[in-house]
Amino acid sequence: MEFTLLQEARILYGAGKVQETGALLRRLGVDKALVVCDEGVKKAGIVERVTNSLTQAQVEFALFDKVQADPPSEVVDEGAAFCRAERCGAVIAVGGGSSIDTAKGINLLRCNPGKIMDYAGQKNEMKKTGGLVAVPTTAGTGSELSDGLVITSPEHVKCPILATNAMAEYIVLDPLLTVGLPAGLTASTGMDVLAHSVESYTSTAASVPTDQISEGNIRSVIQWLPLAVSYPDAVKPREHMAVASMLGGWMLRYGHTHAGHSVAHILGARCGIPHGYACAYALPWVLEFNAPALPEKTAAVGRMFGCSFTGAETPQQAGMAVRQAVIAFRDETLRLRPISGFAERPDDGMLDRMAAEIEMELFQAFNPRRMKKEDARIILENIFS
Prior knowledge:
Blueprint: E1 10-13, H1 21-27, E2 32-36, H2 39-43, H3 46-56, E3 60-64, H4 73-85, E4 90-95, H5 97-111, E5 132-136, E6 148-152, E7 158-162, E8 170-173, H6 183-202, H7 208-230, H8 235-251, H9 259-271, H10 275-290, H11 295-304, H12 315-333, H13 348-360, H14 373-384
Parallel strand pairs: 1-8, 2-3, 2-4, 4-5, 5-8
Antiparallel strand pairs: 6-7
Helix pairs in contact: 1-3, 4-5, 6-7, 6-8, 6-10, 7-8, 9-10, 9-13, 10-12, 10-14, 11-12, 13-14
């Protein structure tokens, strides 16, 4: 086997490091930066910590605070036009996955022509794009260290865009920015970290080097996420979850995700379910579905969750046990909001359309077992039951 295991971003890690953002931009020779965020992060006062550091370092800035969940392509295009009009030499993402993905798209278009959807499906060549600084405020998507972004098309379809040439150049990983986040947001974004780690561990692209990182990440989430949920002001669980989120994002470049994210993307696009929640609803059922193709790894995941196996179990029995363990972790330990809090069961026609879309979704390419439309339909039925 021949492969690369490369991580190019420079990381400023530690409590209070957000205060050094301005000094970082000054060292990079940036005179003006675009700060990208949503209204919630701005109202929480986190953006002000970044802009104050820019002012102290005598770096000018413009603010684009129109980020939306499941970033629409038109918002990215609008932000890119604003960035060019303001003549910004760098882009700073402040927020969760939606802010970072939006900022990635804006920075990509700062150095490349056209609109963001021109780069979906690798239709256009993407020039190397530096100048993106990611300041994550949730421990979830790992977009700060992933090689992609997910944009929602005008047709309301989630479009993953491979952006190896447009990754963050610097990451300011300050765990204090996640302290005090509400339990539901902490749990749902943490389940996204878990999904990234479990899916990269059980995908067809996994390898022994990536497995060691993903295994450690799974164990870390199981240990520290419940503490972060139960003790929102405790710093240590936030530190571990911030690192797990970042490493999970790194593994998206090598182990990738699989059908778990295919289901989650369609749940988000068609039912308006936030991504972390959608991953949490999809993961246990996809793990069970994949068990016949990966019995040993499925059992290994189960043991991390406390399952005991005699060795006499069939793959289906092991898959069922792991599914039940993940659901118990999600519903009983984390007390995650049920899917009924977001959406009712779609009608049969919509479920059929969603199942067909899941079968054709991009990340099915890395699933260890082929998932047909009828398989996806059963999984959807179970999720909404």
